[in-house]
Automatic annotation (TrEMBL):
It comes from the Eukaryota. One of its GO terms (cellular component) is cell surface. Probable disulfide isomerase, which participates in the folding of proteins containing disulfide bonds. May act as a dithiol oxidase. Acts as a regulator of endoplasmic reticulum-mitochondria contact sites via its ability to regulate redox signals. Keywords: Disulfide bond, Endoplasmic reticulum, Glycoprotein, Isomerase, Membrane, Redox-active center, Signal, Transmembrane, Transmembrane helix. It is a single-pass membrane protein. It catalyses: Catalyzes the rearrangement of -S-S- bonds in proteins. GO terms for molecular function: protein disulfide isomerase activity. This is protein disulfide-isomerase. Residues 1-23 form the signal peptide. The gene is LOC114449323. It comes from Parambassis ranga. It is found in: Endoplasmic reticulum membrane. Its EC number is 5.3.4.1.
């Protein structure tokens, strides 16, 4: 009897915990835009009931809602079934699932990162807070430095540069934090040629923006918002493409790194640190453990460990001409990419896009055929059958031509031609 009561109690506690966690996430319908307040801040997930990725994200989403509520965040968390709340989905231009966005004072911010709890929560804190966060003391500055790999800081009073900085922050806040400070808050070792200034702190050093040298401020920030060397996933790699820089990657195993993979990773890290001034304007450096994105780019299986330079702006890539065993070999590889002796492969031409589409379909369907042959045949055969029926109907509907030998002209088929009434002609 006691065991039964114990099971009932556990069931009740589990039910209460699920209900309490779910209470932090509100289901939104088409009436949302009419009833929300102007100052509300919402983090919203659009999903479809049949979407596998949406189902995997659901428990994470409820954890995010619970955590933001417990921290007293002003961000409210919601979710919406895009297949039923079609008006709301159309308003926010939802195309893919799950779509994650934040609505702050009627401005929409799309989440561009990995579907992880930490990534989404950081996005909510970043966008939901002040656009530019003031650092009013050295303690606050050092605290921010300890928490962020890259810090973008405006230093000085109100100016035209600060206006441009604010405009850049409004667009790039989805990617990184923006700070402001006075000169006395910065470490004494930081030397600024003039004020106001925009400074990026990263990799144990700092870089100061110069309009004459660096051009547009927003483009410069977009180029400098990544560490020089880091672990890179597919979302980060895609974002790096917007910077215009190339990315040198060491492709390694996903779990425990072998000695060769560890050596490849260390080699790239050493080049990034020791030759930063030579290559930092043209390259980012990192290592990648999930190589599915690179496999799709190359349309072939990736060998690990190996090296590749990726140009995300054109979907191109560069491969070493020979074995890379030493730092000197790796530097020769980078120099060959820069001077054009190593040619780019891939690209985003129509031919390449078509080939990638076929490759992606092959990769997707191969496991289906191996595990469920009948389902695979249906997935391939059904579209082909529809296309064949469509082509047949089109051909059948087209008028056929026949030659009339007597008149020497082409007439429509008898079922479609208009017959002329005979006319009597008088002969002189």
């Amino acid at each position: 009897m006691s065991d039964r009561r114990h099971m009932v109690l556990l069931t009740v506690l589990l039910f209460v915990s699920v209900v309490s966690v779910s209470a932090f996430v509100e289901e939104l319908d088409d009436s949302f835009l009419k009833r929300k307040e102007a100052d509300d801040i919402w983090l919203i997930k659009f999903y479809a009931p049949w979407c596998t990725f949406c189902k995997k994200l659901d428990p994470i989403w409820h954890q995010i809602g619970s955590e933001l509520r417990s921290l007293g965040s002003p961000v409210q968390v919601g979710k919406s079934d895009a297949t039923t709340a079609t008006g709301l989905a159309k308003e926010f231009k939802v195309i893919n699932y799950p779509a994650i966005l934040m609505l702050k004072k009627n401005v929409k911010y799309n989440y561009p990162g990995a579907r992880t709890k930490d990534g989404i929560t950081d996005f909510a804190h970043r966008v939901g807070g002040p656009l530019i966060r003031p650092l009013s003391s050295q303690q606050l500055f050092q605290h921010a430095m300890s928490r962020h790999d890259v810090m973008i800081v405006y230093v000085g009073a109100t100016s035209e540069l600060k206006g441009n900085y604010t405009l850049a922050a409004e667009e790039l806040i989805i990617h990184t934090y923006f700070f402001s400070a006075t000169r006395d808050v910065l470490p004494k070792a930081v030397s600024l040629p003039s004020l106001p200034a925009v400074v990026v702190f990263k990799d144990g050093t700092y870089f100061t923006y110069s309009e004459e040298r660096d051009g547009d401020l927003k483009l410069w920030i977009n180029k400098e918002r990544f560490p020089n060397f880091s672990q890179i996933d597919s979302y980060t790699l895609y974002s790096m493409g917007e910077s215009g820089k190339l990315v040198l990657l060491a492709l390694v195993e996903e779990n425990l790194l072998c000695d060769e993979s560890q050596r490849s990773k260390s080699l790239v890290e050493a080049v990034a640190a020791e030759h930063r001034e030579t290559y930092r304007r043209n390259f980012y450096f990192g290592f990648m453990v999930d190589t599915n994105y690179i496999s799709g780019l190359m349309m072939s299986e990736v060998i690990v460990p190996s090296y590749i330079v990726v140009n995300l702006s054109s979907d191109g890539y560069f491969l070493p001409l020979g074995t890379v065993d030493t730092k000197h070999h790796l530097l020769d590889f980078l120099d060959g990419v820069m001077n054009g002796t190593i040619k780019s492969q891939g690209g985003n031409s129509i031919t390449q896009r078509t080939r990638r589409l076929i490759y992606d379909a092959k990769v997707t369907l191969t496991p289906v055929f191996s595990q469920a042959p009948l389902l695979g045949c249906f997935l391939v055969g059904f579209p082909v059958a529809l296309a064949a029926v469509f082509c047949y109907l089109c051909c059948k509907a087209r008028p056929t031509l026949i030659d009339d030998d007597d008149d020497g002209v082409a007439l429509l088929a008898p079922s479609l031609q208009h017959r002329k009434k005979p006319t009597n002609k008088k002969s002189d």
